[in-house]
Amino acid sequence: MRSGTQSTTSSIAILTPMKIIGSPTSPYVRKVRIVFSEKKVEAALELENVWAADTKISATSPLGKVPCLLLDDGEAIYDSRVIVEYADTLSPVGKLIPAGSRERASVKTWEALADGVLDACILARLEATWRPTEQQSPAWIERQMGKVHVGLRQMSEQLGGNAWCHSNQMTLADIAVGCALGYLLLRFPSIQWQTEYPNLDRLYQKLIQRASFIETAPPVA
Ligand code: GSF
């Protein structure tokens, strides 16, 4: 365990001076916050709007992206996949990434799939919101939305009738999928994934009952 952390019983949160730099609507930030919550390791959220003209994000995160985890000695850890892997080692509570290499790769592939759906969503959204109208490419948006739809179908097929994405317990795979599905509801409510893929909805409804998902629900705009 890192110095500066306070080890306690599993029912009490571990207090650390770590900070998660991010925004409450970023799905990657949410994934990180959910993992910290599930691991019962506290890290304060330091709000940063990376889209604001005066953002200071590149002082800590050179690529100008959130999430970024700031350790107590000032070291910055990014991106979300590195942070969650690190967070999983910080407490013995509820292992979210299996130790075995094959199983680990399966869970991380689920995460790559869910994050990849998010990457495509964000590229499509930025094309429509960031670029001036005359520069926007409908073909680019269509390409990205195609990835979103194929990704959703893949998630649904892989989940099948299972209770969880991987093995018989919740892992990082479910958290990553839950964050992607939650982001779709927030930013792409016209995508009817809940009716098209009832098994994904069943998983999602189970996840959003958890304190970690409730605490990190994005604010409704
Ligand atoms: C993606 C982070 C990201 O794109 C990760 O952490 O997993 N692979 C990275 N973050 C966005 C915010 S968001 O859309 O959730 C970001 O910070 N974008 C700023 C920019 O300049 O691209």
Ordered list of secondary-structure elements with their pairings:
Blueprint: E1 14-22, H1 27-38, E2 41-47, E3 68-70, E4 76-77, H2 80-87, H3 101-129, H4 138-159, H5 172-187, H6 193-196, H7 198-207, H8 211-215
Parallel strand pairs: 1-2
Antiparallel strand pairs: 1-3, 3-4
Helix pairs in contact: 1-2, 1-5, 3-4, 3-5, 5-7
L-gamma-glutamyl-3-sulfino-L-alanylglycine is lined by residues 26-28, 50, 64-67, 79-81, 115, 122.
Structure description:
- The protein is an alpha+beta fold and 221 residues long.
- The protein has 2 domains: 19-87, 3-Layer(aba) Sandwich (Glutaredoxin); 101-210, Glutathione S-transferase Yfyf (Class Pi), Chain A, domain 2, CATH 1.20.1050.10.
- It has helices at residues 27-38, 80-87, 101-129, 138-159, 172-187, 193-196, 198-207, 211-215, and strands spanning 14-22, 41-47, 68-70, 76-77.
- Strand 1, helix 1 (27-38) and strand 2 form a beta-alpha-beta unit.
- The longest helix is centred in the middle third of the chain and has 29 residues, at 101-129.
- The termini are far apart.
Summarize the structure.
With 221 residues, the chain is of the alpha+beta class. The chain has helices spanning 27-38, 80-87, 101-129, 138-159, 172-187, 193-196, 198-207, 211-215, and strands spanning 14-22, 41-47, 68-70, 76-77. Strands 2-1-3-4 form a four-stranded mixed beta sheet.
Keywords for this entry:
globular, Glutaredoxin, 48% helix, single chain, binds L-gamma-glutamyl-3-sulfino-L-alanylglycine, 8 helices, 221 residues, four-stranded mixed beta sheet, disordered N terminus, alpha+beta, Glutathione S-transferase Yfyf (Class Pi), Chain A, domain 2
